Amino acid sequence: MKPEPTSKTHSIYTEAMEVFHRAADLIGLDHRVRLELEEPDYEHIFYVTTQLEDRLVPLADSEAATYSNLAPSSILEKNMIVPLYDGKLILRPGALRGAGVVHIEGGVIRLGPKLFRIEKGTTEQFKAYRVQHNQARGPYKGGVRYHHGVSLDLFKILAAEMTWKTSIANVPFGGGKGGIKIDPRLYSREELEAITLRYMYRLKQLVGPNLDIPAPDVGTNGEVMAWMFRQYSDGERERHALRGVVTGKDVQIGGSEGRVKATGQGLAYCVEDWFAEKGIPLKGARFILQGFGNVGSNAAEILSGMGAKLIAVNDADGTIYDPKGIDVAQLTQWVYNNPENVKKSVGGYPMGQVISKKDFWELEADFAVPAALGNEIDASIAEKMKVKMIAEGANHPTEPAADAVLEARKIEVIPDVIANAGGVTVSYYEWIQNKRMEHWTEAEVNGRLERAIKVNYALIRDIAANRVTRTGDRDSTSFLVGRKISSRQAAMVLALKRIEAHYRLEGFSQ
Ligand code: NAD
Fold this sequence. Notes:
Strand order of the largest sheet: 17-16-15-14-18-19-20
Largest sheet: 7 strands, mixed
Distance between the termini: 9 Å
Low-confidence stretches: 1-7
Number of helices: 17
Bound molecules: nicotinamide-adenine-dinucleotide
Radius of gyration: 24 Å
Helix content: 25-40%
Structural class: alpha/beta
Shape: globular
Strand content: 15-25%
Protein backbone atom coordinates (compact mmCIF):
# COMPACT_ATOMS: atom_id res chain seq x y z
CA MET A 1 0.00 0.00 0.00
CA LYS A 2 1.24 3.44 -0.79
CA PRO A 3 1.92 5.56 2.31
CA GLU A 4 0.11 8.80 2.96
CA PRO A 5 2.23 11.75 1.87
CA THR A 6 4.64 12.07 4.76
CA SER A 7 6.33 15.40 5.22
CA LYS A 8 4.81 18.64 4.04
CA THR A 9 7.70 20.59 5.52
CA HIS A 10 9.74 22.67 3.11
CA SER A 11 12.49 20.82 1.24
CA ILE A 12 14.08 20.90 -2.20
CA TYR A 13 11.52 18.21 -3.08
CA THR A 14 8.44 20.15 -1.97
CA GLU A 15 9.86 23.22 -3.72
CA ALA A 16 10.41 21.31 -6.97
CA MET A 17 6.88 19.88 -6.73
CA GLU A 18 5.32 23.37 -6.63
CA VAL A 19 5.10 23.45 -10.43
CA PHE A 20 3.24 20.11 -10.25
CA HIS A 21 0.77 21.43 -7.67
CA ARG A 22 0.16 24.65 -9.58
CA ALA A 23 -0.57 22.70 -12.78
CA ALA A 24 -2.75 20.25 -10.83
CA ASP A 25 -4.77 23.20 -9.47
CA LEU A 26 -4.99 24.72 -12.92
CA ILE A 27 -6.56 21.65 -14.49
CA GLY A 28 -8.50 20.49 -11.40
CA LEU A 29 -6.54 17.23 -11.29
CA ASP A 30 -8.47 14.40 -9.63
CA HIS A 31 -7.54 14.49 -5.93
CA ARG A 32 -6.66 10.82 -5.75
CA VAL A 33 -4.41 11.09 -8.81
CA ARG A 34 -2.70 14.07 -7.14
CA LEU A 35 -2.02 11.96 -4.05
CA GLU A 36 -0.71 9.10 -6.21
CA LEU A 37 1.74 11.49 -7.86
CA GLU A 38 2.65 13.62 -4.86
CA GLU A 39 5.04 11.05 -3.39
CA PRO A 40 6.96 8.20 -5.09
CA ASP A 41 5.67 4.64 -5.18
CA TYR A 42 8.91 3.26 -3.69
CA GLU A 43 12.10 4.69 -2.22
CA HIS A 44 14.89 2.11 -2.10
CA ILE A 45 17.97 3.06 -0.08
CA PHE A 46 20.81 0.61 0.50
CA TYR A 47 24.58 0.41 0.81
CA VAL A 48 27.19 -1.11 -1.48
CA THR A 49 30.67 -2.02 -0.31
CA THR A 50 33.84 -2.68 -2.24
CA GLN A 51 37.53 -3.35 -1.83
CA LEU A 52 39.61 -0.48 -3.21
CA GLU A 53 42.98 -0.79 -4.94
CA ASP A 54 46.23 0.53 -3.46
CA ARG A 55 46.96 4.21 -4.07
CA LEU A 56 49.98 6.47 -4.27
CA VAL A 57 49.15 9.63 -2.32
CA PRO A 58 51.23 12.78 -3.02
CA LEU A 59 53.38 13.53 0.01
CA ALA A 60 52.81 16.85 1.80
CA ASP A 61 55.63 19.36 1.30
CA SER A 62 56.21 19.38 5.07
CA GLU A 63 57.18 15.69 4.95
CA ALA A 64 59.27 15.82 1.78
CA ALA A 65 62.54 16.88 3.46
CA THR A 66 62.70 13.55 5.33
CA TYR A 67 62.99 11.73 2.01
CA SER A 68 65.32 14.11 0.16
CA ASN A 69 67.87 11.35 -0.37
CA LEU A 70 65.36 8.75 -1.59
CA ALA A 71 66.45 7.54 -5.04
CA PRO A 72 63.85 7.67 -7.84
CA SER A 73 62.01 4.50 -8.83
CA SER A 74 60.93 3.64 -12.31
CA ILE A 75 57.92 1.50 -13.05
CA LEU A 76 58.31 0.42 -16.63
CA GLU A 77 54.76 -0.71 -17.34
CA LYS A 78 52.93 2.59 -17.46
CA ASN A 79 49.45 1.02 -17.27
CA MET A 80 50.29 -0.25 -13.77
CA ILE A 81 49.83 3.32 -12.52
CA VAL A 82 46.63 5.25 -13.24
CA PRO A 83 46.25 8.97 -12.44
CA LEU A 84 43.09 10.11 -10.68
CA TYR A 85 41.36 13.49 -10.59
CA ASP A 86 42.56 14.30 -7.04
CA GLY A 87 46.27 13.83 -7.85
CA LYS A 88 46.45 10.36 -6.33
CA LEU A 89 47.57 7.41 -8.46
CA ILE A 90 46.14 3.90 -8.55
CA LEU A 91 48.89 1.36 -7.95
CA ARG A 92 47.99 -1.88 -9.69
CA PRO A 93 48.74 -5.18 -7.90
CA GLY A 94 52.24 -6.33 -8.79
CA ALA A 95 53.27 -2.90 -10.11
CA LEU A 96 56.26 -2.80 -7.77
CA ARG A 97 57.25 -6.39 -8.51
CA GLY A 98 57.50 -6.00 -12.29
CA ALA A 99 60.51 -4.86 -14.28
CA GLY A 100 62.01 -1.59 -13.14
CA VAL A 101 63.98 -0.07 -10.29
CA VAL A 102 62.16 0.34 -7.00
CA HIS A 103 63.30 2.16 -3.84
CA ILE A 104 60.88 2.44 -0.93
CA GLU A 105 61.62 4.11 2.41
CA GLY A 106 59.09 4.29 5.22
CA GLY A 107 56.30 3.49 2.77
CA VAL A 108 57.35 6.39 0.50
CA ILE A 109 58.40 6.15 -3.15
CA ARG A 110 59.75 8.74 -5.59
CA LEU A 111 58.43 8.73 -9.17
CA GLY A 112 60.08 11.39 -11.34
CA PRO A 113 60.45 14.45 -9.12
CA LYS A 114 57.40 13.61 -6.97
CA LEU A 115 57.18 11.74 -3.66
CA PHE A 116 54.19 9.54 -2.84
CA ARG A 117 53.07 7.57 0.21
CA ILE A 118 51.89 4.05 -0.63
CA GLU A 119 48.39 3.62 0.82
CA LYS A 120 46.93 0.10 1.12
CA GLY A 121 43.51 -0.27 -0.48
CA THR A 122 40.71 -0.05 2.08
CA THR A 123 37.15 -1.31 1.94
CA GLU A 124 34.63 1.44 1.41
CA GLN A 125 30.87 1.76 1.73
CA PHE A 126 28.65 3.90 -0.50
CA LYS A 127 25.03 4.96 -0.10
CA ALA A 128 22.90 3.88 -3.05
CA TYR A 129 19.37 4.73 -4.17
CA ARG A 130 16.59 3.83 -6.58
CA VAL A 131 13.41 5.86 -6.41
CA GLN A 132 10.43 4.51 -8.37
CA HIS A 133 7.99 7.38 -8.68
CA ASN A 134 5.05 6.25 -10.79
CA GLN A 135 4.19 3.50 -13.24
CA ALA A 136 0.66 4.40 -14.35
CA ARG A 137 1.83 4.75 -17.97
CA GLY A 138 4.35 1.89 -17.99
CA PRO A 139 7.54 0.56 -16.36
CA TYR A 140 9.58 2.99 -14.25
CA LYS A 141 12.24 4.62 -16.41
CA GLY A 142 15.15 6.85 -15.50
CA GLY A 143 18.86 7.37 -15.19
CA VAL A 144 21.57 6.22 -12.83
CA ARG A 145 23.65 9.08 -11.40
CA TYR A 146 27.06 8.69 -9.79
CA HIS A 147 27.76 11.96 -7.99
CA HIS A 148 28.91 13.05 -4.55
CA GLY A 149 26.06 15.55 -4.19
CA VAL A 150 23.07 13.17 -4.49
CA SER A 151 20.41 12.67 -1.81
CA LEU A 152 17.04 10.99 -1.43
CA ASP A 153 15.25 14.29 -1.99
CA LEU A 154 17.22 14.89 -5.19
CA PHE A 155 16.38 11.44 -6.55
CA LYS A 156 12.71 11.97 -5.62
CA ILE A 157 12.71 15.18 -7.69
CA LEU A 158 14.47 13.54 -10.62
CA ALA A 159 12.24 10.44 -10.53
CA ALA A 160 9.10 12.62 -10.54
CA GLU A 161 10.51 14.61 -13.45
CA MET A 162 10.95 11.35 -15.35
CA THR A 163 7.24 10.63 -14.83
CA TRP A 164 6.41 14.02 -16.36
CA LYS A 165 9.01 13.62 -19.12
CA THR A 166 7.96 10.15 -20.27
CA SER A 167 4.39 11.42 -20.43
CA ILE A 168 5.39 14.55 -22.39
CA ALA A 169 7.50 12.45 -24.78
CA ASN A 170 4.45 10.14 -24.99
CA VAL A 171 6.50 7.00 -24.42
CA PRO A 172 4.87 4.14 -22.48
CA PHE A 173 6.93 4.50 -19.30
CA GLY A 174 6.67 5.93 -15.82
CA GLY A 175 9.42 7.63 -13.84
CA GLY A 176 12.36 6.47 -11.74
CA LYS A 177 15.87 7.60 -10.89
CA GLY A 178 18.72 6.39 -8.75
CA GLY A 179 22.42 6.13 -8.30
CA ILE A 180 25.26 6.21 -5.84
CA LYS A 181 26.71 8.92 -3.64
CA ILE A 182 30.22 8.80 -5.04
CA ASP A 183 32.62 11.01 -6.98
CA PRO A 184 33.49 8.59 -9.82
CA ARG A 185 36.54 10.64 -10.78
CA LEU A 186 38.27 9.46 -7.60
CA TYR A 187 38.06 5.75 -8.47
CA SER A 188 39.62 3.50 -11.08
CA ARG A 189 37.60 1.93 -13.87
CA GLU A 190 38.00 -1.46 -12.17
CA GLU A 191 36.73 -0.07 -8.85
CA LEU A 192 33.74 1.52 -10.57
CA GLU A 193 33.00 -1.79 -12.27
CA ALA A 194 33.03 -3.58 -8.90
CA ILE A 195 30.82 -0.90 -7.31
CA THR A 196 28.37 -1.03 -10.24
CA LEU A 197 28.16 -4.84 -10.10
CA ARG A 198 27.40 -4.62 -6.39
CA TYR A 199 24.79 -1.91 -7.01
CA MET A 200 23.05 -4.04 -9.64
CA TYR A 201 23.36 -7.15 -7.43
CA ARG A 202 21.16 -5.36 -4.90
CA LEU A 203 18.90 -3.89 -7.57
CA LYS A 204 18.31 -6.89 -9.81
CA GLN A 205 15.10 -7.98 -8.09
CA LEU A 206 13.66 -4.49 -8.46
CA VAL A 207 14.35 -3.80 -12.14
CA GLY A 208 13.57 -5.48 -15.46
CA PRO A 209 12.47 -4.56 -18.99
CA ASN A 210 8.83 -4.57 -17.91
CA LEU A 211 9.43 -3.19 -14.43
CA ASP A 212 12.12 -0.52 -14.18
CA ILE A 213 14.66 0.42 -16.84
CA PRO A 214 17.79 2.37 -15.82
CA ALA A 215 19.88 4.45 -18.25
CA PRO A 216 23.01 6.63 -18.08
CA ASP A 217 22.96 10.00 -16.36
CA VAL A 218 25.61 12.24 -14.77
CA GLY A 219 28.75 10.23 -14.01
CA THR A 220 27.62 7.05 -15.82
CA ASN A 221 27.74 5.94 -19.47
CA GLY A 222 27.26 3.00 -21.82
CA GLU A 223 30.07 1.08 -20.14
CA VAL A 224 28.28 1.28 -16.77
CA MET A 225 25.10 0.04 -18.51
CA ALA A 226 27.05 -2.94 -19.91
CA TRP A 227 28.21 -3.86 -16.39
CA MET A 228 24.65 -3.52 -15.12
CA PHE A 229 23.35 -5.78 -17.88
CA ARG A 230 26.04 -8.37 -17.17
CA GLN A 231 25.10 -8.48 -13.49
CA TYR A 232 21.39 -8.69 -14.32
CA SER A 233 21.87 -11.61 -16.72
CA ASP A 234 24.74 -13.34 -14.87
CA GLY A 235 23.90 -17.01 -14.34
CA GLU A 236 20.32 -16.45 -15.56
CA ARG A 237 20.19 -17.95 -19.03
CA GLU A 238 16.85 -16.53 -20.13
CA ARG A 239 17.84 -13.04 -19.10
CA HIS A 240 20.29 -12.74 -21.99
CA ALA A 241 17.26 -12.03 -24.17
CA LEU A 242 16.21 -9.20 -21.84
CA ARG A 243 18.63 -6.56 -23.06
CA GLY A 244 15.94 -3.92 -22.61
CA VAL A 245 16.56 -3.96 -18.83
CA VAL A 246 18.92 -1.03 -19.35
CA THR A 247 19.13 1.50 -22.17
CA GLY A 248 22.03 3.64 -23.33
CA LYS A 249 24.08 0.52 -24.11
CA ASP A 250 26.83 0.43 -26.72
CA VAL A 251 25.34 -0.29 -30.17
CA GLN A 252 27.43 -3.47 -30.38
CA ILE A 253 25.52 -5.00 -27.45
CA GLY A 254 21.98 -3.93 -28.24
CA GLY A 255 22.17 -0.16 -27.91
CA SER A 256 20.40 2.06 -30.40
CA GLU A 257 22.07 4.04 -33.11
CA GLY A 258 21.76 7.70 -32.19
CA ARG A 259 21.30 7.12 -28.42
CA VAL A 260 24.58 8.75 -27.35
CA LYS A 261 23.69 11.95 -29.17
CA ALA A 262 19.92 11.72 -28.61
CA THR A 263 19.56 14.17 -25.73
CA GLY A 264 21.62 16.84 -27.48
CA GLN A 265 19.83 16.05 -30.74
CA GLY A 266 16.37 16.46 -29.16
CA LEU A 267 17.47 19.75 -27.61
CA ALA A 268 18.68 20.96 -31.00
CA TYR A 269 15.29 20.09 -32.60
CA CYS A 270 13.53 22.20 -29.94
CA VAL A 271 15.94 25.11 -30.42
CA GLU A 272 15.49 24.87 -34.20
CA ASP A 273 11.69 25.12 -33.84
CA TRP A 274 11.88 27.97 -31.30
CA PHE A 275 13.92 30.00 -33.80
CA ALA A 276 11.64 29.00 -36.68
CA GLU A 277 8.56 30.15 -34.77
CA LYS A 278 10.17 33.50 -33.95
CA GLY A 279 11.24 33.89 -37.57
CA ILE A 280 14.86 34.46 -36.53
CA PRO A 281 17.69 32.53 -38.22
CA LEU A 282 19.48 29.97 -36.03
CA LYS A 283 22.48 30.36 -38.31
CA GLY A 284 24.80 32.86 -36.67
CA ALA A 285 22.90 32.85 -33.34
CA ARG A 286 25.33 32.97 -30.38
CA PHE A 287 24.97 30.64 -27.40
CA ILE A 288 26.63 29.92 -24.08
CA LEU A 289 26.81 26.39 -22.71
CA GLN A 290 27.20 25.00 -19.21
CA GLY A 291 28.45 21.40 -19.03
CA PHE A 292 30.50 19.69 -21.73
CA GLY A 293 29.52 16.11 -20.90
CA ASN A 294 27.25 13.85 -22.90
CA VAL A 295 24.41 16.33 -23.30
CA GLY A 296 26.47 19.52 -23.57
CA SER A 297 29.13 18.34 -26.01
CA ASN A 298 26.62 16.66 -28.34
CA ALA A 299 24.20 19.60 -28.24
CA ALA A 300 27.13 21.92 -29.03
CA GLU A 301 28.25 19.80 -31.96
CA ILE A 302 24.75 19.55 -33.46
CA LEU A 303 23.85 23.21 -32.87
CA SER A 304 27.12 24.39 -34.36
CA GLY A 305 26.43 22.06 -37.31
CA MET A 306 23.14 24.00 -37.73
CA GLY A 307 25.15 27.24 -37.90
CA ALA A 308 24.83 28.49 -34.29
CA LYS A 309 27.97 29.93 -32.72
CA LEU A 310 29.23 28.67 -29.33
CA ILE A 311 30.93 31.58 -27.54
CA ALA A 312 31.50 30.29 -23.98
CA VAL A 313 31.53 27.06 -22.00
CA ASN A 314 31.55 26.55 -18.24
CA ASP A 315 32.09 23.18 -16.61
CA ALA A 316 33.03 21.88 -13.17
CA ASP A 317 36.69 22.84 -13.61
CA GLY A 318 36.83 25.91 -15.79
CA THR A 319 35.22 28.48 -18.06
CA ILE A 320 36.34 29.52 -21.52
CA TYR A 321 35.19 32.36 -23.77
CA ASP A 322 35.84 33.28 -27.37
CA PRO A 323 33.57 35.95 -28.88
CA LYS A 324 34.62 34.84 -32.37
CA GLY A 325 33.21 31.37 -31.76
CA ILE A 326 34.64 28.15 -30.32
CA ASP A 327 35.46 25.29 -32.67
CA VAL A 328 33.44 22.48 -31.08
CA ALA A 329 35.34 19.63 -32.77
CA GLN A 330 38.66 21.02 -31.54
CA LEU A 331 37.30 21.52 -28.03
CA THR A 332 35.97 17.94 -28.01
CA GLN A 333 39.45 16.69 -28.93
CA TRP A 334 40.96 18.76 -26.13
CA VAL A 335 38.50 17.42 -23.55
CA TYR A 336 38.08 13.80 -24.59
CA ASN A 337 41.11 12.74 -26.62
CA ASN A 338 43.80 14.27 -24.48
CA PRO A 339 45.53 12.04 -21.91
CA GLU A 340 46.95 15.16 -20.21
CA ASN A 341 43.43 16.41 -19.46
CA VAL A 342 42.72 14.06 -16.53
CA LYS A 343 39.76 16.21 -15.42
CA LYS A 344 38.17 16.05 -18.89
CA SER A 345 37.48 19.75 -18.55
CA VAL A 346 37.29 22.66 -20.96
CA GLY A 347 39.55 24.49 -18.47
CA GLY A 348 42.99 25.16 -19.93
CA TYR A 349 41.76 25.04 -23.55
CA PRO A 350 44.43 27.13 -25.23
CA MET A 351 42.18 28.77 -27.84
CA GLY A 352 39.86 30.61 -25.44
CA GLN A 353 40.05 33.32 -22.79
CA VAL A 354 39.57 32.29 -19.17
CA ILE A 355 36.62 34.03 -17.51
CA SER A 356 34.84 33.59 -14.16
CA LYS A 357 31.65 31.57 -13.77
CA LYS A 358 29.87 34.78 -12.72
CA ASP A 359 30.94 36.57 -15.92
CA PHE A 360 29.91 33.51 -17.94
CA TRP A 361 26.27 33.81 -16.88
CA GLU A 362 26.28 37.54 -17.65
CA LEU A 363 27.52 37.21 -21.24
CA GLU A 364 25.34 38.62 -23.98
CA ALA A 365 24.12 35.87 -26.32
CA ASP A 366 20.99 34.75 -28.13
CA PHE A 367 20.43 31.69 -25.96
CA ALA A 368 21.91 29.66 -23.12
CA VAL A 369 22.08 25.88 -22.75
CA PRO A 370 22.53 24.76 -19.14
CA ALA A 371 23.60 21.09 -19.50
CA ALA A 372 25.35 20.38 -16.20
CA LEU A 373 23.57 19.94 -12.88
CA GLY A 374 20.37 21.14 -11.25
CA ASN A 375 19.70 24.49 -9.52
CA GLU A 376 22.53 26.27 -11.32
CA ILE A 377 20.41 29.27 -12.38
CA ASP A 378 19.19 31.03 -9.26
CA ALA A 379 17.22 34.28 -9.04
CA SER A 380 20.33 36.48 -8.88
CA ILE A 381 21.80 34.88 -12.02
CA ALA A 382 18.40 35.12 -13.75
CA GLU A 383 18.39 38.88 -13.00
CA LYS A 384 21.67 39.34 -14.88
CA MET A 385 21.40 36.94 -17.82
CA LYS A 386 21.50 38.64 -21.21
CA VAL A 387 19.93 35.98 -23.43
CA LYS A 388 16.55 35.73 -25.16
CA MET A 389 15.98 32.05 -24.40
CA ILE A 390 17.19 29.20 -22.20
CA ALA A 391 17.09 25.62 -23.53
CA GLU A 392 17.34 23.35 -20.49
CA GLY A 393 19.60 20.40 -21.33
CA ALA A 394 20.14 19.57 -17.66
CA ASN A 395 17.38 18.37 -15.39
CA HIS A 396 16.02 21.12 -13.20
CA PRO A 397 18.75 23.70 -13.91
CA THR A 398 16.49 26.66 -13.05
CA GLU A 399 15.38 27.30 -9.48
CA PRO A 400 11.66 28.13 -9.05
CA ALA A 401 12.53 31.65 -7.83
CA ALA A 402 14.61 32.15 -10.99
CA ASP A 403 11.64 31.10 -13.13
CA ALA A 404 9.61 34.03 -11.85
CA VAL A 405 12.47 36.42 -12.65
CA LEU A 406 12.87 35.01 -16.16
CA GLU A 407 9.14 35.34 -16.80
CA ALA A 408 9.16 38.96 -15.64
CA ARG A 409 12.19 39.67 -17.84
CA LYS A 410 10.53 37.91 -20.82
CA ILE A 411 13.39 35.43 -21.18
CA GLU A 412 11.74 32.35 -22.64
CA VAL A 413 12.47 28.81 -21.45
CA ILE A 414 12.38 25.53 -23.32
CA PRO A 415 11.76 23.41 -20.21
CA ASP A 416 13.90 20.39 -19.38
CA VAL A 417 11.01 17.94 -19.65
CA ILE A 418 10.87 18.52 -23.41
CA ALA A 419 14.32 20.01 -24.16
CA ASN A 420 16.17 16.94 -22.88
CA ALA A 421 13.46 14.35 -23.64
CA GLY A 422 15.43 13.11 -26.68
CA GLY A 423 17.39 10.74 -24.44
CA VAL A 424 14.39 8.93 -23.03
CA THR A 425 12.68 8.91 -26.43
CA VAL A 426 15.58 7.08 -28.07
CA SER A 427 15.85 4.89 -24.95
CA TYR A 428 12.30 3.86 -25.80
CA TYR A 429 13.41 3.06 -29.38
CA GLU A 430 16.28 1.02 -27.94
CA TRP A 431 13.85 -0.85 -25.70
CA ILE A 432 11.52 -1.61 -28.66
CA GLN A 433 14.47 -2.77 -30.79
CA ASN A 434 15.59 -5.06 -27.94
CA LYS A 435 12.10 -6.51 -27.56
CA ARG A 436 11.76 -7.11 -31.29
CA MET A 437 15.41 -8.15 -31.75
CA GLU A 438 15.77 -5.43 -34.39
CA HIS A 439 18.40 -2.89 -35.27
CA TRP A 440 17.30 0.42 -36.79
CA THR A 441 19.53 2.82 -38.74
CA GLU A 442 20.54 6.19 -37.30
CA ALA A 443 18.49 7.93 -39.99
CA GLU A 444 15.38 5.97 -38.94
CA VAL A 445 15.99 6.75 -35.25
CA ASN A 446 16.57 10.46 -35.89
CA GLY A 447 13.56 10.70 -38.21
CA ARG A 448 11.28 9.27 -35.51
CA LEU A 449 12.95 11.40 -32.82
CA GLU A 450 12.52 14.62 -34.78
CA ARG A 451 8.81 13.96 -35.35
CA ALA A 452 8.22 12.94 -31.71
CA ILE A 453 10.07 15.88 -30.13
CA LYS A 454 8.70 18.47 -32.52
CA VAL A 455 5.07 17.38 -32.22
CA ASN A 456 5.17 17.33 -28.42
CA TYR A 457 7.05 20.63 -28.24
CA ALA A 458 4.47 22.15 -30.61
CA LEU A 459 1.68 20.89 -28.31
CA ILE A 460 3.40 22.58 -25.35
CA ARG A 461 3.60 25.84 -27.29
CA ASP A 462 -0.08 25.51 -28.23
CA ILE A 463 -1.04 25.00 -24.57
CA ALA A 464 1.18 27.92 -23.47
CA ALA A 465 -0.39 30.20 -26.09
CA ASN A 466 -3.93 28.86 -25.42
CA ARG A 467 -4.10 28.08 -29.15
CA VAL A 468 -6.39 25.50 -30.72
CA THR A 469 -4.48 23.45 -33.29
CA ARG A 470 -5.83 20.44 -35.11
CA THR A 471 -3.43 18.93 -37.64
CA GLY A 472 -2.76 15.41 -38.83
CA ASP A 473 -0.29 14.84 -36.01
CA ARG A 474 -1.67 16.85 -33.09
CA ASP A 475 -4.83 18.19 -31.51
CA SER A 476 -4.36 20.66 -28.68
CA THR A 477 -8.08 21.12 -27.87
CA SER A 478 -8.35 18.87 -24.82
CA PHE A 479 -5.18 20.26 -23.22
CA LEU A 480 -5.90 24.01 -23.19
CA VAL A 481 -6.62 25.67 -19.85
CA GLY A 482 -8.46 28.75 -21.11
CA ARG A 483 -5.62 31.26 -20.80
CA LYS A 484 -1.97 31.74 -21.68
CA ILE A 485 0.51 30.09 -19.31
CA SER A 486 4.30 29.64 -19.15
CA SER A 487 5.90 26.91 -21.21
CA ARG A 488 6.92 25.09 -17.99
CA GLN A 489 3.31 25.09 -16.79
CA ALA A 490 2.13 24.04 -20.24
CA ALA A 491 4.51 21.08 -20.27
CA MET A 492 3.25 20.01 -16.84
CA VAL A 493 -0.38 20.33 -17.98
CA LEU A 494 0.37 18.05 -20.93
CA ALA A 495 2.09 15.54 -18.62
CA LEU A 496 -0.68 15.49 -16.03
CA LYS A 497 -3.56 15.25 -18.51
CA ARG A 498 -1.95 12.23 -20.15
CA ILE A 499 -1.26 10.52 -16.81
CA GLU A 500 -4.72 11.32 -15.46
CA ALA A 501 -6.26 9.63 -18.50
CA HIS A 502 -4.72 6.33 -17.36
CA TYR A 503 -6.28 6.57 -13.91
CA ARG A 504 -9.59 7.79 -15.38
CA LEU A 505 -9.85 4.99 -17.94
CA GLU A 506 -8.12 2.14 -16.08
CA GLY A 507 -9.20 3.04 -12.54
CA PHE A 508 -7.34 2.13 -9.35
CA SER A 509 -6.51 -1.38 -8.17
CA GLN A 510 -7.78 -1.91 -4.63
P1 NAD B 1 27.99 14.20 -17.78
O1 NAD B 1 28.45 13.61 -16.51
O2 NAD B 1 28.35 13.57 -19.07
O3 NAD B 1 28.47 15.75 -17.84
C1 NAD B 1 28.22 16.65 -16.81
C2 NAD B 1 28.90 17.98 -17.14
O4 NAD B 1 28.53 18.93 -16.13
C3 NAD B 1 30.43 17.92 -17.13
O5 NAD B 1 30.93 18.72 -18.18
C4 NAD B 1 30.79 18.57 -15.78
O6 NAD B 1 32.07 19.18 -15.78
C5 NAD B 1 29.68 19.59 -15.65
N1 NAD B 1 29.49 20.02 -14.27
C6 NAD B 1 29.37 19.26 -13.16
N2 NAD B 1 29.26 20.03 -12.07
C7 NAD B 1 29.31 21.31 -12.50
C8 NAD B 1 29.26 22.57 -11.85
N3 NAD B 1 29.12 22.65 -10.53
N4 NAD B 1 29.34 23.69 -12.61
C9 NAD B 1 29.49 23.62 -13.94
N5 NAD B 1 29.54 22.45 -14.62
C10 NAD B 1 29.45 21.32 -13.90
O7 NAD B 1 26.39 14.32 -17.64
P2 NAD B 1 25.28 14.37 -18.80
O8 NAD B 1 24.82 12.99 -19.08
O9 NAD B 1 25.75 15.25 -19.90
O10 NAD B 1 24.08 15.09 -18.02
C11 NAD B 1 24.03 16.52 -17.86
C12 NAD B 1 22.63 16.92 -17.42
O11 NAD B 1 21.68 16.48 -18.39
C13 NAD B 1 22.16 16.32 -16.09
O12 NAD B 1 21.33 17.25 -15.44
C14 NAD B 1 21.35 15.11 -16.53
O13 NAD B 1 20.40 14.73 -15.56
C15 NAD B 1 20.69 15.67 -17.77
N6 NAD B 1 20.23 14.66 -18.72
C16 NAD B 1 21.08 13.75 -19.27
C17 NAD B 1 20.60 12.85 -20.21
C18 NAD B 1 21.51 11.89 -20.92
O14 NAD B 1 21.03 11.23 -21.86
N7 NAD B 1 22.77 11.79 -20.57
C19 NAD B 1 19.23 12.84 -20.55
C20 NAD B 1 18.40 13.79 -19.98
C21 NAD B 1 18.90 14.70 -19.07
